[in-house]
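Researcher: Next sequence.
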Amino acid sequence: MYRYLRDHESYITALLESGKELDWGAIASYHKTQIRFLQHERLVHLIVTCVFGMLFFFSSITTAFMPFPALYGLDLILGVTLVFYIIHYYRLENGVQRWYRLYVSLKQKS
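Model: Next structure:
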């Protein structure tokens, strides 16, 4: 996903910096379609991140009241997974924000 984000962003940035006369409206439309795909991806990952956050919260509360060794392992697994989901969602969100700025630049060109 990150490679796709970077590659598309590099492609659009290169087009903007090229100075060529291009069909900026078509490029903006293509870019807007890509933004829609990422918005869907972002929504899915937000839902998954929230679910893992709630699972981690409830697991931690359960562990606080019933301290079994297996629950510590579950807390650890859920906590580590949640951290990775948060990092992934953070990168995805920042990528979409950068793409919004690129879209504004494309609309100004057209």
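Model: Helices lie at 2-18, 24-65, 69-109. The mean pLDDT is 92.
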